[in-house]
Predict the structure of Aldehyde dehydrogenase domain-containing protein.
Amino acid sequence: MSVYVLPYRKGPFKSEVFGWNSAIAMICGNTSIWKCSPTTPLTAIAVTKIVSKVLQRNGIPASIATLLTGDADIGDILVTDKR
């Protein structure tokens, strides 16, 4: 499993880090959990819906690319959890 906690980033490419890293994770057989910035959840939701549709069309469970939204406490839990 790969976990990405992405900070807010100005500019038109807010999702490129998720795209690059999740593609590598999927090729290696891993799932991805993406925690977006609390200031840009709509962009993250739109990207996740697109990824989900592509995965489903190719017979891959959409849950391989999971999105979490929320404040910094969610990111802290993801990064510090020992499991």
Notes: The chain has a mean pLDDT of 80. The first helix runs from residue 16 to 27.
